Amino acid sequence: MQKYDVIIIGAGPAGLAAAIYTSRAALSTLVVDESSAGGQVKTTYHVANYPGFVEPIAGHELAGNMREQAEKYGTKFKLAADVTALHLSDQEKWAELDNEDKYTAEFVIIATGSSPRLLNIPGEKDYKGSGVSYCATCDGEFYKDKDIFVIGGGNSAMEESLLLLQFVKSITVIHQFDKLQAEKITADKVTTNPKVDILWSHEPRAFYKKENKMVVEAENLKTHKRIRLERDGIFIFVGLVPNSAFLKNVPIQLTKYGYIITGPQMETNIRGVYAAGDVRDKRHRQITIAVGDGTTAALEVIKHNLN
Amino acid sequence: MLQTNLEHIESEEQLKELIENNEKVAVCCGRMGPMCIPVYDIFEILQGNYPDIQFRDMDFDIPSAAIIKGLPECQKFFGLPFTIYYRNGKVVKATSSIQSAKEVKIVIDEVFA
């Protein structure tokens, strides 16, 4: 078992900010992530609201800088590595990666962030990239002059719809409520566009293909009647979920939605275990806030290590 | 031009030569977009773990990318990136859209074992 002072699970802005602080404080620091470093920031085209950058910076560049900064101070990384076993208690903390190596530490910071929510209905995974998409800027042009569905009615669904309207012939928005949750200014731009119609109070139950068309089987949530509609493609934007499933066998307190409950210093109910960033239960989720969370958690670790 | 640390494929000839001279080749063809960058990053990490596999990327918008876009396996793809796995010069797997590290490792273990 390899020993570190701190293990940080998650290499997004919260985890990397924490790593910069703990490494600079000469604590041996291991950052683990099931993917590459950067979290959701690396998949953001431009970041315009991160202080210190007068002009917007590419998300992957900002993420790369954060990783490089942490490495410069001695942080070690295990990337594209799954946490296959995890033990967190007041007395002992260890993580097993990829069913092989085990790592232990006195302190653990969980900063696994959140991911786009999947609908988890039949056909969704089968047609990812061949009829089902999650990114308007990436895949919109494949649907030039075509008819598509957008699933969702929040900010991301409406913002992505505005992008898609530059390409497509029509959008049918499928939304589970009878009112959009998006900010009014964005929602109005979408709903007043003649290329858009909305199927209210419906939820998709299955996707399948009929020749070259994608078929959505949708249920009316008021009458429970199901209908089938055909379009050329489906774009899904139904919010985010915390990446906390790997904690299912750990006695850490979560909200009913899976977010980690912390105190103001990012402490969880387990001594020496902290949570930071989007995986933590809080009202606002921004890069700057994640960085602040990571910094707070790291400073707490540094303080308790000195004690 | 893709801003990655992978070696780039910039011509059809380069790709042909690569797959002719290497048993195992993986090529991620995309842009610097949200669905593509994670896959390039995963390739960068995995190339250290799988030295027998040649990991490359290719800009989706250069004319030579027609060699990828024209593959029969890609004709029903509507999501970037297009990721192609070649073994002994032949396509053995092709995926479309973002893939997690776990998904890429499953494909590698399946087609390059």
Distinctive features:
heterodimer; A: alpha/beta; 7-stranded mixed beta sheet; 5-stranded parallel beta sheet; 6 helices; B: about 110 residues; Glutaredoxin; 5-stranded mixed beta sheet; about 35% helix
Structure characterization notes:
The complex is a heterodimer of chains A (307) and B (113). With 307 residues, chain A is of the alpha/beta class. Chain A has 2 domains: 2-116 and 240-306, 3-Layer(bba) Sandwich (FAD/NAD(P)-binding domain), CATH 3.50.50; 132-236, FAD/NAD(P)-binding domain, CATH 3.50.50.60. Chain A is 22% helix and 30% strand. Chain A is built from 6 helices and 19 strands. Chain A has helices spanning 13-24, 59-72, 136-139, 155-164, 184-191, 287-306; strands spanning 2-9, 29-32, 46-47, 57-58, 76-78, 83-88, 93-97, 101-110, 114-116, 132-133, 147-151, 170-174, 196-199, 202-210, 213-220, 226-231, 233-236, 240-242, 273-275. The longest helix of chain A is centred in the C-terminal third of the chain and has 20 residues, at 287-306. The model of chain A has no long low-confidence stretch (mean pLDDT 95). Chain B is of the alpha/beta class. Chain B has one domain (7-111): Glutaredoxin (3-Layer(aba) Sandwich). Chain B has a 5-stranded mixed sheet, with helices on both faces. The chains are: A alpha/beta (307), B alpha/beta (113). At the A-B interface, helix 2, strand 10 and helix 3 of A face helix 2 and helix 4 of B.
